[in-house]
Amino acid sequence: MYDAIAKGYDELYGKEQEAKLQKIAHVLKGRILDIGAGTGIVAKHFKHVTSLDPSAEMLKYASGKKVIGNAEHLPFKPGSFDTIVSLTALHHTHIDAVIKEIKRMKAKNLAFSILKKSKDCKEIVKKLKHAFAMEEIDEEKDILLVKEFKD
Question: Which fold is adopted by the domain 3-147?
Answer without folding.
Answer: Rossmann fold (3.40.50)
